[in-house]
């Protein structure tokens, strides 16, 4: 038998599968330390305004945490003095969360309808093919004209990004439902569309739908920075302002704040996903 495709006589995936949790954590820690060392070494070769090092970024983060900024509570208009990091994060969440919810909800709904009903597919596919290549940021001008400067326009931009991700994942999930499953459901008396979608199609397509939702959680954070070009305050705006002032240590600090929030939200969503999809195991 040829040794091609093996490492040391074993399949490439065997070693990783056999690794213990402790080994994987140790490797991840080693990789992180190596990255920090390379980052630090590279930063010593440049001035801080071109490439801040880990120490400078940590110091900048500490300054932002220690400083205060005013946060206006939505609907009540109450001003509260909070840590600058918390304030700017809450400001970003004011358009991140609504945009994620609106875009994901519409994406899942339309993806299921297009995937299930041939009439809807035929009617909307030409429009979808025209609109899909347009990036969310191309709608910034429309957001400013339609909604003005503020959270509403940014919510609009974020929702567009979330929509297309969840739409195509929901569509793919519906289209991948095994026809034999549908035939079995029909033989058991499930004939109307509403019941078939609710009891058969959605459960079968749920892995794809959850993949789209999870991807949207990360992608929408990427869009937030650009969405805040339309004026609303938040983490993205702080990144841009700091970069304009050559305070890249502050920019990187807020970039890492976004990363930390994403990691936390992704872990929470994965826990929910495992619970909801436990019936498939």
UniProtKB/TrEMBL annotation:
The chain crosses the membrane at residues 25-42, 96-119, 139-165, 252-272. Residues 1-21 are annotated as: Disordered. Keywords: Cell membrane, Membrane, Transmembrane, Transmembrane helix, Transport. InterPro entries: MetI-like (IPR000515), MetI-like_sf (IPR035906). The keyword Membrane applies. It is found in: Cell membrane. PANTHER family: ABC TRANSPORTER PERMEASE PROTEIN MJ0413-RELATED, ALKANE SULFONATE ABC TRANSPORTER-RELATED, MEMBRANE SUBUNIT. Belongs to the binding-protein-dependent transport system permease family. This is ABC transmembrane type-1 domain-containing protein.
